[in-house]
Each structure stands twice: as C-alpha cells, then as structure tokens.
Design a protein that fits this description.
Mean pLDDT: 87
Strand order of the largest sheet: 1-2
Number of domains: 3
Helix content: 55-70%
Oligomer: single chain
CATH class of the largest domain: Mainly Alpha
Largest sheet: 2 strands, antiparallel
Number of strands: 2
Length: 361
Amino acid sequence: MVNARHVKNVPGRKTDVIDSMWVAQLMMHGLLRASFIPPKPQRALRELTRYRTKLVQERARLVNRLQKLLEGANIKLSSVVTDIMGVSARAMLAQIVAGQTDAELMADLARGSMRSKIPQLEMALTGIVQPHHRFVLTQQLDHIDFLDDKVETISLEIERQLESMSWPEEPAMPDAGEAIEEGTPVADQSELPLTWNTAVALLDTIPGVNRRVAEVMLAEMGLDMSQFPTASHLASWAGLAPGNHQSGGKRYSGRTTKGNKSLATIMVLGAWSAVRTKDTFLKSRYHRLAARRGKKRAIVAVAHSMLVSAWYMLTYQQPYQELGGDYLDERKKEVKVSYLVRRLERLTGGSVSLEFQPAAA
C-alpha cells in the first residue's frame, strides 16, 4: 500500500497496464514509501472506537431532534437549561411524557444551582403539548437511553481490547521491607516497555484529553512512534499541519493537508475543551492566535500542539508538562515590555519611562 499521490502518472495515459508499469518503475528506483498499515489488534481497536464515535454522533443528532420537538410544542427548556439531558431536565421531560401540564410543579423538580432559575423554568415549561408530541418524545428518550447503553457496552469492550493488547505483566518490584541480594538486577521503570493502558494514562494528562479521547488517539496513530520520524510527520499524517504551496517566490494557500480524519476530528474536539481550562499554555496560545488569525485557525493550531506533545510523551514515556498561561510572555519578557512601551508612547504622543518597585509583601 502506497500513497496514491506518490504514484500519479501523466494525465492522458491511464490504463491498468500502464499504471502497473509505472508503479513497477517507481519501485525499481526506490521512489515508493509504504503506507502505515496498523497491526491487526490495532485495526480491531479502530473499528471499536470509530463505531462508538458514530453512536455518540447519532445521540447528538437525536438530542437535537428532541429539542426541535420541544420547540414545536412551545417548550423553551433549552433556553434555561444548559444540558437538556441533565438530571433536572430529564425529570421534567419524564413529567411531560406522563401528561403533566402544571409548569410550576415541573419547575420544582430542579436540583442544585438550577433551583435559582425556577421562575424562568416555569415560563419555559409553559407550552401546548399534544398527544403526538408525548408519543414521539417517549420514543426519542428511549432511543437515547438505548444509545447510552450501547456506548457504555462498547467502552467496556474497548477496555478489554486494550488490556489484551498490553504487554505481559511488568516485573514485580521488591517490597519496601524485603532485602535485595547483592548483584540482583532491579528493573528500571523508565526502561519498561510502554503498554497501551499506560499510554492512555499518559495522554490523559493533556488538558482537554480524557480517557475516550486518548483511546481514539491511540487507535488511530498507534503506540509505536518510531513509525513517524518526527512529531511534524505525525501532524502531517493526521492532517493538522499547514500546507506548503509556493510558486515563483509567492506563497499561496496554506490550508491543512488531507490526513486521518478520525484523528484530526478528535484532536479538534479535545482542543475546544483544552482552551476552556484555566491558566494553561494551550488556552494562552489559542487566544493569542485567535486575535490575529481567527478562532478556527487558532483551534487547529492548538490541536496541532496537542498532537506534537502526544508524540513526545509516547516517545519518551513522560507525562504532560504544563508550561503555564504566562509562558509565552515570560519567554520574551523584555520584548513584550518594549512593545507595550512603544505602543503607549504612540497613544499618548510622549515618552514613557518605567520604574520597577518590589511587590508589597
């Protein structure tokens, strides 16, 4: 298996025989590189994770259909409740299915911080619910519960698959009180082979990456990073690296190249979660880029940074090292201060001098 773009022949000379001759000629000159074909256990893990992703997407579509049904009945629950499938919202939906029409009684089912919104809930739950609305709502809730059960079942199967793919048990370390004979070799934890479960735990330390995201990442790119010479190769293979299109000294479109859609999608989803974390390097990087390049380009850049970090973490078996939200400012502190001083001088039309004083205790 090779990349079709690497064996493309001259247009206008397209037959199976000519294509075969051209591929053979490229092979003779060593111009072909084999595509990455995962081993069979990893391909099985891919099928499980991709199927789970499809079920999660179907559940999201079904929740949108349910919300549209409520809007048709003049139930504006989504305008007050953040998660329409949360505990409080599900209790209210169960009352609607049961035929309850008292908005005040249904609003009183709110729990926790939702109880501060009871007046808004009473207004949102005042609608005209017809029998066919209740019937369709019942079917949709049952379908969502069914999908939740299936997703949980597949997640358990993915855990079993990861366990079966892991290496044999690590050598037992001696107990704290057990004496070690002189000359007995002790296993170095840093030199132990990386297992799939350990890799999941390592990737879980990245902001925005939970266990499910880590499982999809490993299912797509694998455990052995030696198949990608550098982190940039991995980013390009995933389709998260900027394209390089130049001609005549002019740079044209730099849109990302085609790659592994499943990996790129899950990395972008993880990036959206990462930029919502507090005081992190990824959030700081996103806001710096979004101001100049826009939100979508910035989120792809964050996903690229996360994937590069994953390559180094799996290569050196190290957890994620958080740099902090002020890393970029502290890295070039003098340059940042000089820029702000020049900008302040342009705004005021005068000269600005700085006097640093020690911070109060």
